[in-house]
Amino acid sequence: MYIHYCRHCQRIHILNGHKTYCPRCKGHLTELRISYIKYVNLDRQERQTLREHCKNPGELLLLSAAYSRTQEYARWLSLPVSNVENYHTGHYAAYSQ
Ligand SMILES: [Zn+2]
Question: What is the pTM of this model?
Answer without folding.
Answer: 0.73
